[in-house]
Amino acid sequence: MSATAAWLPLLLVPALAAALAVDPDSRRPAPQPRRASSSLVDGWQSACGGRGDATDEGLLGQCAACRLSGMDAPRIYVVESKDGLGSRLHDVIAGMAIASKMGMVLGGVTFRGQGNGCHVSHGVDIMKVAGVLFGLEDPRLLFTGRPPKFDQVWPGLLALESGTRRFVPKPKENIFIANHCVACEVDAVPGISRHGTTWYPQARYYSERFLGQLRNASRIWREPLAFERGSTSVAIHVRRGDVDPADKLRGTSDLWYLSLMEQLRRLAPNADIHVFSSLEAGRQSSEFDAYRSRGATVHLDGDPLEAWAHFAAADVFVMAKSSFSHVPALLNGNCVVYQPYWHRKLKEWVIVEANHTAPLSAAAVKALHGCIGNKSARQNNRKV
User: Fold this and answer.
1) Number of C-beta neighbours around residue 348 at 10 A
2) Is-contact 7 163, C-beta < 8 A?
3) What stretches of 167-313 show up as alpha helix (H) in DSSP?
4) What is the rounded CA–CA span in Å between residue 129 and residue 89?
5) Can you give the C-alpha Rg of the chain in angstroms?
6) Is 328 in contact with 86 (CB distance < 8 Å)?
7) CB 76 within 8 A of CB 106
8) Is the separation of the CB atoms in 319 and 326 below 8 Å?
9) Any keyword Signal (predicted)?
10) How many CA atoms lie within 13 A of 312 on its CB side?
């Protein structure tokens, strides 16, 4: 039996498909000063009702990155996950990228009941952040607890791609991907090995055209920045709170970060380094004194939008092993330093090693030096 035939039972009648849908679990910073947006939950929880009875037309009218294939293209719907802010919006971006790659549009994100905690994670209103990140005037339009009747339902990305080659969607047909982590599926697409080199096809999803539209539409550039003018701005995400630095899968030690800071200062003596982290799980501010003593500005327990604005705009952004890093890294068109983890990097990101004395290899130093130099050259050209 072919892979496509195996998924034929999932081409469900519309009523059952709708039941399934609600059941499954160029950078342009604006002149300063700017008033910072707040992503914190207030008395009015904006997203609990989603878009109600509104159709996907309203979302597509506001979401430029959702509609790259045109208003009449088939609609893809994805599921809101139950994870944190970064993972949820990473999935939304992946849904947009899948739609763009397949000649479709993102019709919305489905949720059950009152949403996953009214779209709140750790006191952060997911919908408010989505509005800023995607440039939506009414971010409620992105989420729906009343999805349309689906014409096709597929259990995941590979089934969708193989199945729609046989069952070609008609204009404005509604298609549902019944998987709680489509970002994981994009990164799991197998690579192609030729002549000893493996090529990963993620760039077909996160294409230059898609990322350009995502960046241009975002309002994250309106957020105020603390970087010193004229410096090489560096933002570092140190994941703490929910992750122990000794965790080999998700954690990174202070020694590793401090060694990397020394390498960055040799590459950019005028670096203005800002470290972003949290004090969850009983951590103390004094644990970050080693960063302060080396000239870094430390930001603890701030608004996520503040951190994301700096991550997206930095000349050099050092990621943690986290979707909270990955989302703003996709918006950063400058230099991104990537620690290997389960989500794959973009081709141009600089990969680092788990070497506590020299995280940047000689090849990585060369690549990052070239990236910073190209960035400076672009800035100088704009001044001429």
Assistant:
1) 13
2) yes
3) 182-188, 208-217, 254-267, 289-293, 304-313
4) 9
5) 21
6) no
7) yes
8) yes
9) yes
10) 29
Q: Can you give the length of the chain in residues?
A: 384
Token representation of residue 178: 């019944």
Tell me which H or E stretch contains 174: strand 174-177
CA dist., res. 271 & res. 55, Å (int):
48
Contact 310, 221 (CB under 8 A): no
- Return d(Cα 211, Cα 136) in angstroms, integer: 16
3-state secondary structure of 122: coil
C-alpha distances in angstroms, 371 versus 26, 125, 229, 241, 257? 15, 35, 19, 32, 20
**Residue 273 φ then ψ, to 5°:** -100, 130
Read off the amino acid at residue 286: S
Q: What are phi and psi of 241, to 5 degrees?
A: 70, -85
As a whole number of angstroms, the distance between CA 144 and CA 115 comes to 9
Whether 321 and 164 have beta carbons less than 8 Å apart is answered as: no
d(CA 324, CA 308): 8
Quote the pTM value.
Answer: 0.86
Does 304 sit behind a cis peptide bond, omega within 30 degrees of 0 on the bond before it?
no
Per-residue pLDDT in tens (0 to 9) along the chain, 384 residues: 444 444 443 444 344 344 444 443 344 444 444 566 655 444 444 446 688 888 999 999 999 999 999 999 999 999 998 888 999 999 999 999 999 999 999 999 998 655 444 566 667 888 899 999 999 999 999 999 889 999 999 999 999 999 999 999 999 999 999 988 999 999 988 777 777 776 777 889 999 999 999 999 999 999 999 999 999 999 999 998 778 777 777 889 999 999 999 999 999 999 999 999 998 777 899 999 999 999 999 999 999 999 999 999 999 999 999 999 999 999 999 999 999 999 999 999 999 999 999 999 999 999 999 999 987 655 544 443
Determine the Cα–Cα distance for residues 350 and 139; give it in Å rounded to an integer: 33
